[in-house]
Amino acid sequence: MEISSLFLQIFLGLTLLTGLAKSDPDPLQDYCIADTKSPLSLNGAPCLNPTLALSSHFTTSALAKPGDTKANQFGFSVTLTTIANLPGINTMGITMARVDIAGNGLVPPHSHPRASEVTICLQGAILVGFVDTSNRLFTQRLEPGDSFVFPRGLIHFLYNEDARKPALAVSGLSSQNPGAQIASRAAFVSSPPIPDVILEKAFQISPREVAEIRKNLGG
């Protein structure tokens, strides 16, 4: 194989991989309001006829109301913009999230496989952090007005340091569908469950401890 041909194949391969690495594809029009009534199943949602576009398709009050932090054992609630409450977000490659955290509540270590995230603290004092692939921890205490960036795919957390007062943050994520996976629940409450022997060896714990953690997490 000629060197020039080899370089061309490498270039084309890298170009393809670079394109595939993007969180969401770029839109091909000004906007693509989600047609939530369409029976089609696509990577995203079909577009509503542009002539039917309204200002209301681009606005939402979904983030105006506090979430229920008592709905889980960790004491947090996340409210997202979606194509259901903000149809105009379809194909824009972004999501907004309201994060309510009860006193000493925790958004447990989790990751977003398809998005980076920037969080702005609006109320309270929030300890945030992420761990990189070298197992290095980066943490910061956020006060109202402070921001912090969580790189795409990395494990991160948010913790309300105040035991008496709730905390509030708003996040922007770089995907229409960022996904979220809580590390502890993925390991111990998957369906079907990961075999106990795997968890025992991975976490260096006993069978009794595996059962207890599963129970505590609702497994």
TrEMBL record:
Pfam families: Cupin_1 (PF00190). InterPro entries: Cupin_1, Germin, Germin_Mn-BS, RmlC-like_jellyroll, RmlC_Cupin_sf. Keywords: Apoplast, Disulfide bond, Glycoprotein, Manganese, Metal-binding, Secreted, Signal. Its main location: secreted. Residues 1-23 form the signal peptide. It is found in: Secreted, Extracellular space, Apoplast. Residues 61-211 form the Cupin type-1 domain. Belongs to the germin family. This is Germin-like protein. The lineage of its organism: Eukaryota, Viridiplantae, Streptophyta, Embryophyta, Tracheophyta.
